[in-house]
Amino acid sequence: MADSPAATPSAALPDTGFLRQPQVLSFVPISKSTLWRRVHARTFPEPVKLSERVTVWRAEDIRRWIEQQGVAS
Questions:
Q1: InterPro entries, from UniProt (predicted)?
Q2: Do the beta carbons of residue 46 and residue 56 sit within 8 Å?
Q3: Which of 25, 14, 72 minimizes the C-alpha distance to 47?
């Protein structure tokens, strides 16, 4: 049971799909406050609202943003 996907977080950023905030923050070492500050400043990918209480980011957008950060530094 320890090998089930729910029991062990994925170590790799998926190629496609949606990521919730805790998943995004596991790949991007910033705080929640900084994440939302960057979203509002348009320096981080915009999230997608799936419902009133569910906000996600596209894995492709996060992957692209991470790659751009490596090029910028």
A1: AlpA
A2: no
A3: 25
